Amino acid sequence: MRNVVTAAVCLQLSLLATGTRGEAPTYLNDVQPVFQKYCIGCHNDQDHEGDVSLESFASLQQGSPKGPVLLAGEPDSSRLIRLMTGTAEPVMPPEGEKRPTDAEIALVRNWIEAGAVGPKGVMPDRLHLVVPEVASHTDIRPISAVALSPNGDALAVARYAEVTLYRKSPGKGQQEWGEVQKLTEFPGKVTAVHFTAGGERLLTASGVTGRGAVATIWEWSLGQKVREFKGHRDIIYDAELSPDGRTLATCSYDQQIILWNAETGEILRELSGHNGPVYDVAFSPDGQYLVSASADDTCKVWRVENGERLDTLGQPLKEEYCVRFSPDGKWIVASGADRTLRVWKFVSRDNPRINPMQFARFAHEGAVVNMEFTRDGSRLITVAEDRTIKVWETEQFTELQLWEKEPEVVSSLAIDPSGRRFIVGRLDGSLSWESLSELQHRSTGGGQQLASIAVSATEMATVTEQEPNSQLAQAQTVRAPATIKGTIDGVVDGQPDVDIFRFSAHAGEEWMIEVNAARSKSPLDSFVEVLHADGSRIERLQLQAVRESYFTFRGKDGKQSGDFRLFAWEEMELNQYLYANGEVNRLWLYPRGPDSGFNVYPGQGDRWAYFDTNSVSHALGEPAYVVEPHAPDEQLIPNGLPVFRLYYENDDECRHSLGKDSRVFFTAPESGEYLVKIKDVRGFQGTGYTYSLSIRPRQPDFKVTLHNTNPKVPAGSAKEFKVTVERLDEYDGPIRVDISGELPEGFTVTTPIVLEAGHETAYGVLSARADAPQPAAEAGKQIQVTATAEIRGEQVTHPVNNLGTIELAPAPKVVAQIRPLEGDMPAEGPLEVTLKPGETIRLKVRVDRHDFDGEVKFGNEFSGRNLPHGTFVDNIGLNGLMLLSGQNEREFFITAAPWVPAQSRLFHLNADTEGGQASNPVLIHIER
Predict the structure, then answer these.
(1) What's the rounded Cα separation, in Å, for the pair 215 and 202?
(2) Of 528, 581, 885, 540, which is closest to residue 691 (Cα–Cα)?
């Protein structure tokens, strides 16, 4: 019985080992398909792993450096068979890879035994597959690409192995298109279709995965091929013609970009550098540059003329599927698997340069698969795997409109030349038109804020709390402004005591609800909230998340303002709000690299929270979001990220000026009565839990202090001084500090000094010439210092303490000077430099040493003293800006963030020697 079974198996294998037509195996029909299925993925003419290629019969005959891989007529001696059967090392295919069946190995063995005869005549096209035809079980034919002609009268729709052309009937509706042509000579999936500039010709890309591809220019009305372009070793994902129609760019899964002469078919150059499939390419409007998007998580910018790589855009976190130049050529926009829309300012035109990223917007909940600009560049449309379509404006790249719940994933789109509508093609084979004509801004960055109204100052009344006042109906009515003296004590229905007060306010009036308890040594840990008259919470604003992140490296306590390490920090911008676990902060200073983090406002000391949220601890890995504030009633377009609603309530005053006491900045949304509710946040109470609760008008103001007074300025050097501001009732506007009066002979001072909006600190320099005489004792005291700001449309000026007694000190051991990288210093006045937002300039710092050869340090993230906010000393690493022992000069870099407004401002450096030696002040102009 055993012999019978063995014989049956041998008979079956012998039958399987015959060729596809029952004859002896042939290379093309039987052997090459086995190699294609199991071997050529690694052993091909390009990768050549193991120094062996089985891609063609000619490659097979070349063998390897160790000798031939097969011996005609001797299968058992052929290394190919021995590796496939495991009788030689290494076994092929390797462990973990799918292996040929015994029947497939027998086919190869029998072919070698029959003499390993190669193909006769011309080798067949690589795009020709020897596979059985399998009938489809569905009538659905997914759409892979669509295109509209430049004048909008022709439509191309691509499906597997075909492109259908339609013409629109003159004067007919947008749905009345008639089929006029069908192109079918394609090897496989059609991945791209584009009309040429005149519309008479059509460019297509098609291919077979793992085999190759072809781009074709058609005279589409005649159904005739004009020219084919073959050169890629894998499928082409996109083919694009330059604006002048003379250059063709193709990109492929083989990681290559090929530039062709579109008129002759000649390869001009190959662009290598991507480490993954290249999914998309796009020419700049002038045709001089090309940008590519790849599975290696980057986009690259190339010069078409010589193939030079000008920049690698490395911010994406996953594969990039689509990329475009804006129609004006100023921006590069890309997106892909990380669901983020990124926008770079295109500056690398003449030489390789870093193109600064201007915007990063969370775009869709699924991978973004395609995008297109309207012809005028005012709108961008994106489509994604989450079955949504979105329209964006292109000034700030904010979302305008959303189409939700598409019947199937939209794979492609084309915009009508009029810019009023667009067509989408879906994976279910359907087409549909959508209108752009009625688009309106449905969401604005700041929302519609209620105009604030100053409350007329009147005398504060003092009121004593009257119990019972724990229930809404028992709320004690007070006439604001008033200070209420009360106690949290007494259990009501088993609940800890709360006190409720009722007051009236007009729409837009600004009130401060403030508690004094902990500052007066009361054990009360207060919590205050403002409610509607019916006891419901009043929504203050809504925060829409636009970027998701989380804390890395370590968590944060409730006070730390530095080293906020966040995932994807490169896509965050200064002044953006950061929401985490109910707390809202604001980003103040960039990280200095991957081993550091953001500083949040105010930049030093205890951090500020915003919108009366409370500073809390944050754990490693805790979610965090960049958010944008909107009015409570604003209709937001969902973007897949959370929306957080804030109310008028507070535990600990958000800027730590009141310790554990509470304060709420309340703007009345409408005229009427409101409730103020106070309690202990822990639910504690007792006879000693006393408080003073003030309901008073907001009185924004400021108090400026000048520090480092009575300076001793070394001859030929300078000393730094600091001005700080205490911002009262959250006045956050800019403040100008002016220093006037006659300075001592030989001395100069930087003036005016501007405390920027929302900032607490600014710096100035008092300099002395090398030949300056010793000032008189009272000279500095005659100098006037004032601080001026505009509050509610009026100029407000306050006196500031002066510099005090100014003395001339001996010349220092180190004198620091900021100089231009090339050229001389100006004969008079400060050195002036110009910097554009988003760009970097280079300067030089030089020191004159006198009996000192040690290190001279200028600081780390704060080394650029008094630079405009968002402008910083760049590329200094964790060691900061410094001169090593024996080093007298070095260059340094100053970078301005893309959003920095136009301004002029004096800055300096401050060496750490001899108690601090300031450099000469330099006037930096930010020009937009």
Answers:
(1) 10
(2) 528
The burial class, CB within 10 Å (0-12 / 13-18 / 19+), for 615 is buried
Kindly report the CA angle at 690 between 687 and 693, in degrees rounded to 5? Answer: 150
Distance CA 816, CA 824 (A): 16
| pLDDT per position as a tens digit, 527-542 | 999 999 999 999 999 9
- Angle at the Cα of 814 (from 812 to 817), degrees rounded to 5? 115
- For Cα atoms 61, 67, 70, give the angle at the middle one, nearest 5 degrees: 50
Distance CA 588, CA 609 (A): 12
* Contact indicator for 756, 661 with CB cutoff of 8 Å: no
The three state secondary structure string of 112-162 is HHCCCCCCCCCCCCCCCCCCCCCCCCCCCCCCCEEEECCCCCEEEEEEECE
Strand partners for 753: 737
Q: How many CB atoms lie within 10 A of CB 377?
A: 17
Beta bridge partners of 251: 238, 257
Q: Region 57-86: what's the mean pLDDT? A: 84
d(CA 247, CA 269): 11
Model confidence at 415: pLDDT above 70: yes
C-alpha to C-alpha distance for 799 and 797, rounded to whole angstroms: 7
- According to DSSP, residue 41 is labeled T
The pair of three-digit structure tokens given for residue 580, joined into one six-digit string: 């985490």
The answer on pLDDT for 88 being more than 90 is: no
Beta partners for 292?
A: 281, 300
Q: What percent of the chain has pLDDT over 90?
A: 75
Helix-strand-coil split of the chain, %, nearest 5: 10, 40, 50
Q: For residue 733, give the amino acid letter.
A: G
Report DSSP state, residue 4: H
pTM for the full predicted model: 0.82
Shortest CA distance to 663 belongs to which of 510, 857, 473? Answer: 510
Distance CA 435, CA 427 (A): 21
User: What letter does residue 10 receive in the DSSP assignment?
Assistant: H
Q: How many Cβ atoms sit within 10 Å of the Cβ of residue 704?
A: 23
**Residue 656's pLDDT is what?**
92
Separation between Cα atoms, residue 507 and residue 668, nearest integer Å? 5
The span from the CA of 462 to the CA of 505, in Å, is 18
- Least Cα distance to 451 among 502, 506, 503 occurs for 506
Residue 54: how many other CB atoms lie within 10 Å: 21
| Res. 443: pLDDT tops 80 | no
205-209: long-range contacts at Cβ-Cβ below 8 A with a sequence spacing of 24 or more? 205/236, 205/237, 205/238, 205/239, 205/250, 206/161, 206/236, 207/127, 207/232, 207/234, 207/235, 207/236, 207/252, 208/126, 208/127, 208/129, 208/235, 209/234, 209/235, 209/253
Tokens of 765: 């320099």
**Which residue type does 250 have?**
T
Closest CA to 290 of 243, 328, 255, 227: 243
Computed on alpha carbons and rounded to an integer, the radius of gyration of the chain in Å comes to 37
| pLDDT score at 122 | 59
What letter does residue 571 receive in the DSSP assignment?
G
pLDDT tens digits, residue range 64-78? 888 888 888 888 888
pLDDT of residue 4: 39
CA gap 539, 611 in Å, rounded? 12
Q: How many CB atoms lie within 10 A of CB 264?
A: 9
- Summarize pLDDT for 462-518 with one digit per residue, the tens: 999 999 999 999 999 999 999 999 999 988 778 899 999 999 999 999 999 999 999
Query: 705: how many CB neighbours lie within 10 A of its CB?
Result: 13
- pLDDT tens-digit profile of 633-658? 999 988 889 999 999 999 999 999 99
Say which DSSP state 744 is in.
P
The two beta strands, 718-728 and 747-749, are unpaired
Q: Name the token pair of 531.
A: 């409610």
pLDDT at position 515 is 98
**Position 348, amino acid:** S
